[in-house]
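Practice problem: HNH domain-containing protein
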Amino acid sequence: MARFDWTYDEVVLAASLVAQNAWQGLRVTSPKVVQLSELLRAAPIHPIEGRPDNFRSKSSVQRKTFDIATQHPNYTGKPTRGGPHDAEVLAAFISEPVPMAALAAAIRDQIIAPPDAAPADDSDLDELTAHEGRALAVTHLRRERNPMLRAAKLAAVTAKGLPIACEVCGFDFAARYGERGEGYIEVHHVLPLHASGPILTRLDDLALLCSNCHRMIHRGRPWLTPSALTGLMGGSS
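Answer key — C-alpha cells:
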C-alpha cells in the first residue's frame, strides 16, 4: 500500500497555521484547518492513485498541527510521535519567522496559481527545444521563472543561514557587485519536464545557479545535474 507521508512543503503549511495560533494546535472545527485540508487534497503533491478516503482530512491536518505544537520548546507535556520534518520546520519557524511565513505563502500560492504565470523568451529556447520539444521547453522556462517559486526557494535558503550563491561554482552576485547584486541568482529546475511531467515543484527540485553555470547545464543533452557540472569544473582545473 502506498505511503503518503507529509512532505516538507506540507509541514510548512501546517506549521504556519500553528505559528499564527500562538504555537497551539488547531481543531477540526477551525476554518483554517478546513481550508488547509481542502488545499492539500487538491494539490498534486502526491499521486491521486491509491489515496485513501481520509487523505489529508480535517482530522489529519488537526493531528499534524498538534504534532508540530507539541515539539515546541515551551510545550511541557509529552510530544506526539509526528513525522521526520516536524522538528526541522518548527525550528526554522522559530529562528526565521518572517522568511518561513513568506515560504508558506509562496507554497500556498504555487498550489493555487495558474501554471503559465511567467512568459518565456524565444532567445532562451535554443538549448532546450531539441531535448524537450518546444511546448515542454516553454513550460520548463516558465516553471524556472515563476516568481513565487523563486521567492520560496530564496526564503528557504535564507532560513537555513546559507548564502544566495551559485551551488556549482559558488559565485555570489552580492559579493561581486555589492548592493546591485543583492539577492540576484537564477533558479534551475533539476528535473526536465519530459522526465517529471507536470507535477508540483518541490523546493528540493530547485537549484540556485549563476548565469554561466545555468547555461552550461542546459547546453546539450542530456542535461547535467549541478553536482555533475561541479565535477567537470573540478576535473578541468
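Discussion: Residues 48 and 74 are 38 Å apart (CA to CA). Students who identified this feature from the C-alpha cells alone can consider the problem solved.
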